[in-house]
């Protein structure tokens, strides 16, 4: 007798039950496949190396389809291709005969091998965000919350709902709990198809078995298509699978019912002794020498051809069909594929439904992303170390420049204080934004690729939510440093603080731009460092001896504008100061007339600050907007949607 879940689920001898929603459930087994997922002759070549070669796979409702193969055989690449994360050179992925597109991919959940989360969020917060953003707004909130509880219960993580996800620096959930958390994240959206890349890796054998039982239950009770890769399933797990796809060196070595795998391999000369774990036995074969692999993959490929030639597969649309050994089995397969292949085109494509472009509205996405950004960024930007650094640096600066006297000799000191302040917050804000993009890369890439939300909602939520956070420490710093240094004038304090805030936000915008464009921490830091140093050199505060033909370049420095604006604010109304012996180099007029008074205008002219303050504010605003707009463009290009 065929085990439950084999391709004989089509057999009329079995007991079929359709539930009230028209979805077939296994009571329990399906009469006809409502959903058939086909991967058809998929070939993937990267840098001239063939990673997948003419691989086909087919799965129907209620099936657990397992991809096995040694490391590097192409399992992840195949799952990525089915999920639409990678585009094959040739071949297609279809659902009910319809090419998978962005909308159909909504029916699909993908649990990655190394899933990424925000480590500072609790499991509940992670699941809450997912359900609020990825589940339709027509579902009441209470129902979404119940759904979270139910899934947490089913997958055995209810007790750790309030535990932080954690990371290598501050542990939280265990590896197995994280794995189950990522499965719940995907299950929350109730996908018809669930892809899992090595869901049992890193789990102990009993947790792995429990997880497999849960997946089996999902396939049986919720009638889902579940396709996953696995390395070393136990014998007990192996017998839960419906279909097996064996991959070796990117080629199919076998695809068919799990129950047919061992007879087929025996037919090919590999007999599995009764005491062996079949999975270990199969993995052993898949790690054989090149000639054995070639024999297996050629045989699998020829057999497909032979069956086609014999017209067993009829109009085989999938290009993949169960290879069986005995004549009886072939007859059985023929009947299956008659049903399957003839139905692929005629399958009710209405079952695919009209999927909304986005699961939730822009405002919901924005609200939830802001909620999450605030929780995640608050801990990062206002971290106790950052706070300590700001206080210590402000106090040191305040002490070094303590109550600077209003003399000619101190003009340079005051400029130095401004320079240090603006430079420090420029580096801090830019690097923080780059580091944040780099650390979030995994999560947002996964979510945006899954079309969970719009890039614009993410970017807007990110930039607006982080705005007050990123300004908190500079404001705090400036209050301490300004008043300790004795830079007098309340209006001057507030206006110069405004400039510092705008300057910090421009630098953060630069970080967004670089971070979004590259998302590689090392390169991002290198690039931002180079740009900031270049801007500093051009700012006119390090050297004033730029060649005349190059003097315009200072306007391209986003640091020149805030430094100039702050200088205007602090020096233009300065009390005129008499020349001193130290000022003759700086102010030549002191040479000719020692009684001349140096005004704030002289100081500014001497520093090359000649324009009205409004021009510097305009320059600042231009950089503030430009960096942010370019950041958005970079992000859009990075996540340009596939149709
Ligand atoms: N972008 C890429 N550039 C070059 N080679 C790649 C690329 N992506 C995958 N490969 C190669 O393709 C092969 C298949 O990779 P894949 O990750 O699909 O294997 P796998 O079977 O999932 O392995 P594992 O079990 O170790 O996760 C590997 O040899 C890998 O190095």
UniProtKB/TrEMBL annotation:
It holds the Pfam family ABC_tran. It is found in: Membrane. Its main location: membrane. It is a multi-pass membrane protein. Gene3D superfamilies: P-loop containing nucleotide triphosphate hydrolases. Keywords: ATP-binding, Membrane, Nucleotide-binding, Transmembrane, Transmembrane helix, Transport. The keyword Heme does not apply. The chain crosses the membrane at residues 382-404, 416-437, 467-485, 497-519, 525-543, 555-572, 609-635. GO terms for molecular function: ABC-type transporter activity; ATP binding; ATP hydrolysis activity. The keyword Signal does not apply. Residues 37-274 form the ABC transporter domain. One of its GO terms (cellular component) is plasma membrane. InterPro entries: AAA+_ATPase (IPR003593), ABC2_TM (IPR013525), ABC_transporter-like_ATP-bd (IPR003439), ABC_transporter-like_CS (IPR017871), ABCG_dom (IPR043926), ABCG_transporters (IPR050352), P-loop_NTPase (IPR027417). Belongs to the ABC transporter superfamily. ABCG family. Eye pigment precursor importer (TC 3.A.1.204) subfamily. This is ABC transporter domain-containing protein. It comes from Potamilus streckersoni.
